[in-house]
Amino acid sequence: MxxxxxxxxxxxxxxxxxxxxxxxxAVPGGxxxxxxxxxxxxxxxxxAMNKGLDPYSMFRPKRYAGTKEDPNLVPSINTxxxxxxxxxxxxxxxxxxxLHQGEAQRCPSCGAHYKLIPHExxx
Length: 123
Description:
This protein is of the alpha+beta class. Helices cover 23% and strands 20% of the residues. The strands form 2 sheets. The chain has a 3-stranded mixed β-sheet with strand order 1-5-4, with no helix packed on it. The protein has a two-stranded antiparallel sheet with strand order 2-3. The longest helix is centred in the N-terminal third of the chain and has 13 residues, at 2-14.
């Protein structure tokens, strides 16, 4: 069985590399892509992802210095949000505090600055 697999994989490596054909709806028997089939909210989310936006905050947030001039930005759909700060890299606990809209606020333990910014949902 293993020798058959090795022979087939060696034969496949010798074949010329061809790019995958682009499938369109107009082609009989073709399959539509996710972007072509999506409607409503799913389409809006896919378009936002293609533009490099993060509609549901799924990507890792950008790192900021945490100073008063360059605070960590915290998106929220409300005027306040609870924030957890791991003050040092090797800490085993989280310092929780309320962050209110307005000026940047400091973590009560380490002094890192956080600022609440408005965030709109994609729908």
